[in-house]
Amino acid sequence: QVQLMQSGAEVKKPGASVKVSCKASGYTFTRYYIHWLRQAPGQGPEWMGIINPSGGTTSYAEKFQGRVTMTRDTSTSTVYMELSSLRSDDTAVYYCARDLGTSFDYWGQGTLVTVSS
Amino acid sequence: AIQLTQSPSSLSASVGDRVTITCRASQAIAISLAWYQQKPGRAPKLLIYHASNLESGVPSRFSGSGSGTDFTLTISSLQPEDFSTYYCQQFNSYPLTFGGGTKVEIK
C-alpha cells in the first residue's frame, strides 16, 4: 500500500534550519510528483512547493523562495524539504503529499516543527 | 493567487442532517477543485477530486458539484464520524491554494 513516512518532530531556535524527510513506499517513486505543505495551529494548509522525483526539478511558492530547498534521493525513495532562517511563525505541522494531477491522494503523517528561543 | 472562500466557517448539525458547504473561487478554475476532510491531529483525507468525482473508498453520502467559480460539498445524511473540518483546494494554477475551512460540529 502507498505510504509516505515522515521524520520526527523538531525543535529549533530562530535563525536555524530544519530538514524534514518523506520516505515513499508502495509505488514507483519516480512516477508521481511530491508536494510540501504546512499547517500552522488553527489554520488551513499552505502550499510550499513541488518536486519531481524523476528529474529533481522544483518549483516553490513565492513566499518561501530563497528559504526553502527540496531535494530527493532516488536510491531510498525519499524527498527532503529544508527550510532556513526559521522564525517563530514557521511553527507548524509540515506535510508531504503525492500529486495525483487533480488532488493530493496520499499524505505523510505530518512533522511538527516548533521554532522557539 | 486564486483565493478560495468557504462558507460557512463553522456549522452545528445533528446526525442524519443534510449538510452543504460552499467554496467560491476568485477566478474561474473549471473543475480543478478537490475537497478534503481533516480530523484533529491527522493529515487531510481526499474526498472529492475534479469537483464531483468521489475518491475510492469514500462513502456515497459525500458528493461534490460545481464548475467555474462556485462549488459545493454535500453530505446527504451526516454520520458521527463526519464531524470534522472540511477544506476545498484548487489545482488550476500555482500557487495551489486552500479555502479557510468549515468546521462541522455536533448540535
Describe the structure.
The complex is a heterodimer of chains A (117) and B (107). Helix content of chain A is 0%, strand content 50%. With 117 residues, chain A is mainly β. In chain A, the strands form two sheets. In chain A, strands 2, 4, 5, 6, 9, 10 and 11 form a seven-stranded mixed beta sheet that branches. A four-stranded antiparallel beta sheet of chain A has the order 1-3-8-7, with no helix packed on it. In chain A, a hairpin with a 6-residue loop joins strand 5 (46-51) and strand 6 (58-60). Chain A is globular, with a radius of gyration of 13 Å. The mean pLDDT of chain A is 97. Chain B contains no helices and eleven strands. In chain B, 34% of the residues are buried. By secondary structure, chain B is mostly beta strands. Classes of the chains: A mainly beta (117), B mainly beta (107). The interface between A and B is medium-sized, with 20 and 23 residues.
Outline of this structure?
The complex is a heterodimer of chains A (117) and B (107). Chain A is an all-beta fold and 117 residues long.
Which terms would index this structure?
heterodimer; A: 117 residues; mainly beta; 4-stranded antiparallel β-sheet; 11 strands; 0% helix; 50% strand; globular; B: 107 residues; 7-stranded mixed β-sheet
Secondary structure category of chain B: mainly beta
In this structure, how is the largest beta sheet of chain A organized? 7 strands, mixed
Anisotropy-based shape of chain B: globular
Mean pLDDT of chain B: 97
Chain oligomer state: heterodimer
Radius of gyration of chain A: 13 Å
| Computed CA radius of gyration of chain B, to the nearest angstrom | 13 Å
Q: What is the helix tally of chain A? A: 0
β-strand amount of chain B: over 45%
Main beta sheet of chain B, described?
A: 7 strands, mixed
SS-derived structural category of chain A? mainly beta
Unreliably modeled segments of chain A: none
Which percent range describes the beta-strand content of chain A? Answer: over 45%
Provide the low-confidence segments of chain B as ranges.
none
**How many DSSP-defined strands of chain A?**
11
Query: Which sequence of SSEs, written as H and E, runs from N to C of chain B?
Result: EEEEEEEEEEE
Largest interface: A-B, 20 and 23 residues
N- to C-terminal distance of chain A:
40 Å
Distance between the termini of chain B: 36 Å
- Helix share of residues of chain B? under 10%
Number of helices of chain B: 0
